[in-house]
Design goal:
Two copies of one chain form a homodimer.
Chain A: H1 6-21, H2 28-35, H3 39-45, H4 49-73, H5 79-82, H6 84-94, H7 102-107, H8 115-139, E1 140-141, H9 145-169, H10 173-185, E2 190-191
Antiparallel strand pairs in A: 1-2
Chain A binds a DNA duplex (30 and 30 nucleotides) through residues 6, 27-29, 37-41, 43-44, 48-49.
Organism (chains A, B): Flagellimonas hymeniacidonis
Keywords (chains A, B): DNA-binding, Transcription, Transcription regulation
GO molecular function, one term (chains A, B): DNA binding
DNA sequence: ATAAGAAAAGACTGGTCTGTCTAGTTATCC
DNA sequence: GGATAACTAGACAGACCAGTCTTTTCTTAT
């Protein structure tokens, strides 16, 4: 865990480049020069640029979801846990290398042929949606499946636009607006105290 | 107006290609072959690919805003006008060549250097936000500036995530969810009858 | 010490990219 | 009819692309 393997070095360098400059604009040569490795070494660890992209997406998503779970678990039950995702986003926005959502950024670059990468992004977003559903279930009592989906879907939509728009405008108003709107979703629900 | 000039042919071809396959994945040669023109002709109308991109964004945005204004004006005052943007989005989604938001799609491809295109996207999104503010002002009475901004900002965020997520999932649930959430924004306001 | 494996360095293939330039063709207007 | 402008076709430059391969160097385990 956390070892500095060549594998990790490649993913880290590629991740920074893809996230900052875009997938199509980043060349293999940039990745190897930033990793300080030879080209043949890279291709002995990954069979294609597409594979590196999927590893990049997975790494970002896994670490995001881990952070989110930690943010949720560190908060009091109820409203605070339901809004934890916006606290995380606010802190992500404050990082100097914030460039919005890695998944949606990559989605914009895909041509309809690149089904594999699309599948990865869809899977990750569904995973987030599912987790938000759990958080809603844990923090709101006596709630139907339809209501759960509406609330978690709403938080999801607000989060995804907040991350994209704060990046677009280079301003955090979308995060605060989204966070202030989210409670309307469960205003008439039995939020756990 | 609406003449079939070479200028328009270039924008139309480029627009379809950029929107479907992405900006970086679309080559000049593809654009000229789809336009049925020679390369020198293209470069006598546009000085660079970046310029074509900006014309593409402008054309999509202008036509979107025109449609939106028409959708709003054709609806009864009040709730229907406030939600008109989601009706438009639903109809856009049903078009066979729907690929989400042209602006956000392009945003994902930009490296931090491409300030000009970023500026165009920011300007367009601000224009949409401003127009939504007008619609809110026209349809809700006795409302403060802060409340107007919260409601129009909320509709804006819901619209932008709905367009992106419906494209990502190839499903219209985000549009209906966003539309069903939006009224919560003005539940306690004086909506014009 | 030696054998085996991993990695470095970078040449190379075959292709793509944007943008320029030259030539020849067509259309238009006086 | 002759001039002017707009267009076509495609060669070309110079750079970059992903991915393969060879050769040399280094590390490590027995």
């Amino acid at each position: 865990m956390g070892e500095i393997t060549i594998h990790n070095k490649i993913i880290t360098s590629a991740s920074n480049l893809f996230y900052a400059n875009g997938y199509n604009s980043t060349g293999i040569n940039e990745i190897i020069s930033k990793s300080g490795i030879a080209k043949a070494t890279l291709y002995s660890h990954f069979k294609s640029k597409e594979d590196i992209c999927m590893a990049y997406l997975k790494q970002r998503h896994d670490s995001f979801l881990e952070s989110l779970k930690s943010y949720v678990s560190k908060r009091k039950k109820g409203r605070n846990q339901l809004l934890a995702i916006f606290d995380l986003l606010r802190d992500m926005y404050r990082e100097e290398d914030f460039h919005g959502c890695w998944g949606l950024k990559t989605l914009g670059e895909l041509s309809p042929k690149q089904k594999k990468i699309l599948g990865v992004i869809q899977k990750q977003k569904k995973e987030l949606l599912l987790y938000l559903g759990e958080v809603v279930g844990d923090n709101i009592t006596n709630i139907s499946k339809a209501e759960t989906e509406k609330i978690s879907g709403g938080i999801y939509l607000l989060y995804d636009s907040a991350i994209t728009e704060s990046h677009l405008f280079k301003n955090d108003w979308p995060i605060y607006t989204a966070r202030s709107i989210a409670p309307l979703l469960f205003a008439n629900s039995e939020v756990v105290q």
